[in-house]
Amino acid sequence: EPEVTQTPSHQVTQMGQEVILRCVPISNHLYFYWYRQILGQKVEFLVSFYNNEISEKSEIFDDQFSVERPDGSNFTLKIRSTKLEDSAMYFCASNREPPYEQYFGPGTRLTVT
Amino acid sequence: AQSVAQPEDQVNVAEGNPLTVKCTYSVSGNPYLFWYVQYPNRGLQFLLKYITGDNLVKGSYGFEAEFNKSQTSFHLKKPSALVSDSALYFCAVRILSGGYNKLIFGAGTRLAVHP
Fold it and tell me: What pLDDT does B98 receive?
């Protein structure tokens, strides 16, 4: 069964550094998403992406964040200058089209020190 | 404001007993509702969804959920719990915005099934 994959599984970085989190969505899916889950808190929407552009972003997704689909398979989330409060589990998700269920990757745990 | 509430932080149930994990929602328009499960150090796995049709929805691993429009609820149920069902369960609602969708999640309910 196809699944969403994410790399790395755990990333440790120093405050102020740039990080890129990578995702490979399910191949025939057209809509892509990033969510995050701060430890012990709920899963929060960050951004949705369709047709090579952002379709919606939350207030969390400020100028420090960007997303890109650099080729036909990868979908990346970049944080330009990380802060301590960016420490969280970041989940990538994809679906064929709304309103169908989104399939989530295993997540990348980002630790900012 | 559109939201999802899971009123219980934790649900404890004995193996073999029925389980219910509660979810209520507040959205404008017709709700599209989902349940996801998260095992330790794993991602979110889709369990089931309600989009339209029968109010009782069946999903993976023997789970089902009942959509109740008058009570704005979408409780997750299973007739006979297994120890392996112990995990974190999230209810989510699709929010439609500008033709695109995102999921709003509840805070999660930890299900503990005891032998």
Answer: 64
